[in-house]
Amino acid sequence: MEIPRHWRLKQQRYSLVGEVCPHCDNKIFPPRDVCPNCGGEAKELYAFSGKGEVYSYTTIYEAPSGFDTSAPYTVALVKLEEGPMVTAQLTDLDNTPVEIGMPVEMVTRKMRNDGDERGIIVYGYKFRRRT
Amino acid sequence: MTDVIIAGIGQTEVGEHWDIGLRDLAFAAIQDAVKDSGGLKPQALFVGNMLAPNLSNQAHLGALIADYAGLTGIEAITVEAAGASGGAALRQGYLAVASGMVDVALVIGVEKMTDKIGPSVDAALSTASDSDFEAVQGMTPAAQAALLMKRYMHEYQVPSDGFAGFALTAHANGVNNPYAMFRKAIKLETYTKAEMVSDPLNMFDAAPNADGAAAVILTRRELLPKDFLHPLVKIAGSASAADTLALHDRKDMLYFEAAQMSAGKAMKQAGIILDQINFFEYHDMFNIYAALELESVGFAIRGQGWKLAADNQIGLKGRIPSATMGGLKARGFPGGATGVYQAVEAATQLRGQAGTNQIAGAKVGLIQSLGGPASTAVSHILQRLD
Questions:
Q1: Do B147 and A58 touch (CB under 8 A)?
Q2: Are B248 and A84 inside 8 Å of each other by CB?
Q3: Domain count for chain A
Q4: CA distance B204 to B200
Q5: CB contact under 8 A, A111 and B123
Q6: With contact defined as beta carbons under 8 Å apart, do A129 and A103 qualify?
Q7: 10 Å Cβ neighbour count for B328?
Q8: Interface mutation vs chain B, best among A28, A33, A57, A58, most B CBs within 10 Å
Q9: Is any Cβ of chain B less than 8 angstroms from the Cβ of A14?
Q10: B140–A63: do the CB atoms touch at under 8 Å?
Q11: Residue A50, Ramachandran bin (φ over 0: left; ψ between -120 and 50: alpha; else beta)
């Protein structure tokens, strides 16, 4: 079980909270406290809109343990409107084809079970088609 | 600076060794390498390994292997850099010997993939990515490669069988490598009909996980035994570079900057230009990685790496022969041992002992070991001295 690890990331997992650089206004996700654009200190929190588009995607048939009951599932690189890219599952696809450039939005979903029936259920961001 | 020579090489067959444990695999490769060196006595042991704490519940491989090989008393540590662990261990051995602090270093790469099976192995391999922001989404190394491959094919209009050349070349070369996991050539049809792993990446776009161990003995030229038997192969250049761990943090993910930087530094140290490199052992964990390495190192312009394979320019008689003993694809992917296998295979080529796969007159080889999608890239230039 990894309760502290998931707990301390709850702002990122539930609300897509990153940072904004006070020096160059670069938006940062995941937060890293140092701006990858200008190298300045960047600790100011910034909540992302959750809107973006698919940069690339694929389907996983053979999943790692913890995810094997979810397979097959689709994962994507999503380019957020504010700039950063995130790795996330796509959800609510209803068998409609995914395309590069498809507009998507963030939703909160169950990610995985952590271990046995006493383990925590990890929730976090996924993305669905935006119409 | 005095020349650092690869004085001894050893390797086990790559495969699913259900009946051989981690320590026995390592010992077999070490015995062969020590014997091949004419009995040099190692003073330091660098172990390249990626997953033993996870897959075999065994950490502390330095002491384990030193003990089991009858080498207690020597310095012994593990070097971990995911799939690049072997290349990183080789570099530590090189630095130790080149510095003069160690006279004879033993570098061993060992991986035991088959102590666990299926989803547990996938989960272990995923620990090499960003656990908090990639693996938590159910990502796997194969899916990472598929994301890159999909975008690459989209940007450069690559046909669906555009990467087949990498698999065909690797498997053709694996036929004549007695240590390779797969020794059977494949046809284009085998590639095009292969089962999908993660669309567009099929089974023949990915290397097989396997067990194996490879070892090299390094020493300085003046310390070689007087009756040393082999042509001299030196490490002429050595460099390593790190990039962002997560793919999504790259400014430009279709260019392996760490591959470019480490290869460039190693070539500069060796005083070698691209045209002087006779063969390239790339880290074809996935065919898309091979294409991106060819481009990042400079053998192809951006978007054209796949064409080198499609036009058979990576074959044994091509412009830049690659995966000359089967590469990861056909020799197999024994995790953190892989980079040491590359060194053993390149030394074999440069000694002129590669048999049917011998590159005529090979003087200079480039080997490159990747961790993840070139989050770590370790490059070495090996050169024959005459």
A1: yes
A2: yes
A3: 1
A4: 11
A5: no
A6: yes
A7: 29
A8: A58
A9: no
A10: yes
A11: left
Residues 6 or more apart whose Cβ sits within 8 Å of residue B75: B43, B44, B45, B102
- pLDDT per residue over B71-129, tens digit each? 999 999 999 999 999 999 999 999 999 999 999 999 999 999 999 988 999 999 999 99
Give Cβ neighbours of residue B382 (< 8 Å, ≥ 6 apart). Answer: B6, B233, B234, B235, B236, B343, B346, B347, B350, B364, B365, B366, B367
Give me the domain span that covers residue A28: 3-129
Q: Which two tokens stand for residue B227?
A: 């009756």
Q: Does domain B4-117+209-232 have CATH number 3.40.47.10?
A: yes
DSSP one-letter code for B231:
P
* Answer CATH for B125-206+236-385 from 3.40.47.10, 3.30.310.50, 3.10.310.10, 3.20.20.70: 3.40.47.10
Strands B364-371 and B279-281: parallel
- Read off the amino acid at residue B145: A
- For residue B107, which phi and psi values (nearest 5 degrees)? -110, 120
Asked whether the whole model's pTM tops 0.90, one would answer: yes
User: B307-364 pLDDT, tens per residue?
Assistant: 999 999 999 999 999 999 999 999 999 999 999 999 999 999 999 999 999 999 999 9
